Amino acid sequence: MNLPPKVTDRAFEQLAAIGAGNQGQALRVAVEGGGCSGFQYEIKLDEPAEDDLILEGSGEKVVVDAVSLPFLAGATIDYTQELIGARFVIDNPNASSSCGCGTSFSM
């Protein structure tokens, strides 16, 4: 059985800070074909769909569609602030390699 992705408290706190839940939106994390390593993450605010896995915390939601779920099994969704900027990041144990920017990976 595949473990669902996990979302850190820091990621939920950032969603609360931007008021995503107040607008009826969730952070959507999806995997698509493409990018420099074969697959790429799409991270955006979106409305939850009926067949999404919904992860909840601090009154906020992160959603993953059924197609992306196997690619994100056991992954951790976090929020980071660095000198180069602030962003949501994914630590994916399924990725055998990833690009330098962290938005694409291979399996």
Automatic annotation (TrEMBL):
Alphabetical list of PROSITE patterns matching this protein: HESB (PS01152)
Any one GO molecular-function label of the UniProt entry: 2 iron, 2 sulfur cluster binding
Entry-linked Gene3D superfamilies: HesB-like domain
Superkingdom of the organism of origin: Bacteria
GO terms under biological process: iron-sulfur cluster assembly
SUPFAM superfamilies: HesB-like domain
Segment forming the signal sequence: none
InterPro entries cross-referenced by the UniProt entry: ATAP, ATAP_core_dom, FeS_cluster_insertion_CS, HesB-like_dom_sf
Domain Core: 6-102
Protein name according to UniProt: Iron-sulfur cluster assembly accessory protein
